[in-house]
From TrEMBL:
One of its GO terms (biological process) is chromatin remodeling. Component of the NuA4 histone acetyltransferase complex. It comes from the Eukaryota. PROSITE patterns: CHROMO_2 (PS50013). This is Chromo domain-containing protein. InterPro entries: Chromo-like_dom_sf, Chromo/chromo_shadow_dom, Chromo_domain. Pfam families: Chromo (PF00385). Residues 16-53 form the Chromo domain.
Amino acid sequence: MDTSSSIASVDSADEFSFNQILAERMLGGVPMFLVEWDNYDLNEATWEPARHLHRDTIDDWEEFKTNTGRRSQPGFKLRNRQSHLILGQLGSNGQSTSLTLHDLPGDTTASWLKHLKSQNRIIFTHTCTFQDWSAWPDLVEKRLCEGTVSAFVDVAKLKSVADWLEIGCSCLMHHNPQYSIILFPLTDEGRWVSGDGETHILKHTIVKPSGVFDASALAPLSLPPTPDELEISATSGIPIFDTVFGFGLDEVLSWKSRESGQTSVFIAFPASARQEANFIVEWLRYRKPNCHVRFSLHPGEWLSFLKLEHGAAKLQQGTVIIHEDAIWAIRSFPHLAQLLHRPSDEISFHIFKRALPKLLPPFSPIPFSPIPSEPVLNWRPSGEALQQVFRLGDAFLLTPSFFVSQPEQACSLMEWLWDNKKRFSSNYFRKRLVVCAKICNWLHKLASEKKERLQNSTESERWSSGLTQRAIDSYFKICGLARLFVGLAEDPDSPVVLAPESIGGDDEQSLVNWFGWWAISKMDLVRRFYVVGSEQRLTRNVRLLSVSDYVYSKAPDAKPTMKWYGAQVQRGQGLHHLDFVGWKSVFQGHKIADL
């Protein structure tokens, strides 16, 4: 292919010597050609439209494509890469600078990349030496991408950071369980200015950390202060508070608290975290001298915080701060459901977490382990000590007894949930349907049983059991809706949550127990949780099931049937209650008419 022609650039005052066309792609519906210029590096190749190239050059390129079937030169791979501008906080002193991360993967479906692009700020909390990082390859499970980091506005600030890293032979690190970002300095010879005026000063490596990675072994980042930062005025705040929390108190308080000026905070900390609780109290009182602070170490403080009157919480606005070691105990807080059903701009919740925690739950009596591929907690990775939870969103567990006894109401609720899915694209405004793993098969079998029973029953039997053709139609319509939901189960922001396959569709007690665990583990995504059951003691709640797969340790003369009575299960001569009472204090069960 002849590449010896010379052309003028768009700016006629400049002349460039054309070398070759490297690749072709469609940009905005227009064919564009990646052109390499003589005496310029490949990273300075430019995309040019056909009108900027000689006709002979285009003809030669078309002949090359026809003969080879390629749209790029042999040995040249056109990477589908993108850049992302983000605010980076460097060090515990809270300095921030705008960064542009280059050469990110073009595959925007990667969960880690979607999370990274959703962040307004990335905090680099730790540092290590080049030697230490390269000596432990086992810390990295997978390298996700590499590229450069540039700055356009804060060039001087980023250059000082790069110089500081180069002197210490060190790198910066932002760490979370999904991915870690490591920043290395470029040498003076390696730094360059791109055509858009951005100065490339650092290089980044983004990796997926392995299970043995423990960021607490790294040194916390502490940049040397600038001369302007050495003078601290009386109103600038206590440095240790700013170091730990990284933001003002107003970002923690609910919107109504900020508007009214009345600050009421409850601190739910275990006795082992008394010093941390005292530290937060000092911070609150320093920032808001008139702040009313109550915490769990003093009996009766919770009810006082609620301003309980005749069993109802009269608290108008407030903030609850929960220690990470206490998150599995919050379901026992009296009247917590009343606070969760209030708007998040009135009552806000935050988790106090240690720096870079190991996200493992404490021992729980729930006999089901978390799904291995699913993170236990969806923490927003950052260096902040306080993270907001219970923001927005609702989750509805539809129990087997609800499907069995109230098919028309169940159909209406699922239609409403599906309509919500279509109307709201935001993950936080969506309602989530929670059902058993094999819900489609379970519902189809139930619908077939009801249809057969309708055909073989007398008029009086149909009336007593509530069987109508309308109910049968609702059963099969529910099956269709369930297939629509399950078809989206693998989506990152799926509107349906499936229980573990180890829980059968008829095991209502285990479903409710598991839902309690799931609700706590997803507190950063959902605010309100509902267990939707049937009305009490309806005859149509009864469904006969084979129990050949069940083994009982007592009642050897048990009959091979199981009966569902709303929130009760009859096994032989023994009656076992499905105890919703323990969860009603936090997760209010509602009838369909109440929704």
